[in-house]
Structure formats: C-alpha cells, structure tokens
Amino acid sequence: GAGVSQSPSNKVTEKGKDVELRCDPISGHTALYWYRQSLGQGLEFLIYFQGNSAPDKSGLPSDRFSAERTGGSVSTLTIQRTQQEDSAVYLCASSSLRGEWSRTQYFGPGTRLLVL
Amino acid sequence: KQEVTQIPAALSVPEGENLVLNCSFTDSAIYNLQWFRQDPGKGLTSLLLIQSSQREQTSGRLNASLDKSSGRSTLYIAASQPGDSATYLCAGNYGQNFVFGPGTRLSVLP
Fold this sequence. Notes:
The structure holds 2 protein chains of 2 kinds. Chain A is built from no helices and 10 strands. Chain A is mainly beta. The mean pLDDT of chain A is 88. Chain B has strands at 4-7, 10-14, 19-25, 32-38, 44-51, 56-59, 62-67, 72-77, 86-94, 97-100, 104-109. The N and C termini of chain B lie far apart (41 Å).
C-alpha cells in the first residue's frame, strides 16, 4: 500500500479481555516496529521485527504482551487480560534497511486503545 | 541507561519567527537521529534523519544538526508558519532500539 495502515483505529474494551491490534507495513519494508504512547508521555519502544530474524522483544512491558509477524509482512500485537494502564495509542512503523541499521521510519496512524 | 530529553516542553511564537528545538541524548553511540512531527490525534511524520557520520540535514525550511560528542541535536525552523504547529519528537537509534524524547509542543500564532 501507499503507507503503513493500522486497524482498528479505535478500540474500547473491558478490563480482563484480550485485544488484537493489526499493522500492515509498507510493501517491501523488512523492518517493523511497535511503540506505545500513553497520554502525555513519550513513545515507548515495544518490539522490533527484521526479516526472518527473531524479534527483539526487549521493550514488551509484561508477558501479557506478544506480537507476531506472518510472512514477513502483516504484524499483530496481542494484549491478553488487558489492564487499565494498557490504555494508550499503539503505533506501528516500518522501514527499509538496505544494508544499514535503519532508514527513515514511516508510521501508521495508530490504534487508540481504551480499557475500561 | 539511554535517555532522550527535549527542551523546551512547549513553545509559542508569532508567525514568521525563526526557532530552535533542542534534543539531548545520554548515550552518544547512536547510529542515527530522527526528527518527527506529530499532529493531534494522528501518527508520526518523519521530518529528517541524520546518520551518525553526518553533521546536519536540510529539508525546505527545516535544518537539523547533530553533535555526537556533546550528545545534542537541534531542529531549526525558519520563517515559522501556523501550519508548523505540532509536537516535534526526536529519536535516537541505537541499533535495534529506538529511544524517543517526550517532544516539544509548538504553537505558531498567526
């Protein structure tokens, strides 16, 4: 596609429920990142996928968070047993590395998650 | 610990002024530094990326500089316009880990 897309754009859920957030990166981009932005806070790195390599999960805040990237393209971020502190905007970004560590990251519009 | 800070937290200027946004990082071993713009309720838009071997990058009215030795980057906006009003974020890339600053909220008054 022309840019990074994310769905849903907004999600309201009840505490304790599981949610799945989807990211569709720019076609051909091998690197994919998930971030979280809580209200009034900066961006927090969550997880990084590069090609077929094992993902860097160092930013995931707890074992309730997991992410997959199928076929090197679409990624799903899953939050199990959601808590109110999980409420935030979840942003996805992709980039084309091409032999360097990173190039410009292109961000999706984000998914606004509200846990009641 | 790798940390990125931005000063000021908020800035309000009249239209037409030149302005500078500051970004500081504690770990100078960055691969590159990137400046973003975030409009309310929207995602991030990349503005400029400076590789660690570069000193500055320019795009239109924007100029970003990088001084690894002092752990600083600046974003210079010339002849500011009301459409420049947004939150500006800088991010240091440490390989697979990106560390973002909290942002500077800019308001350009007509």
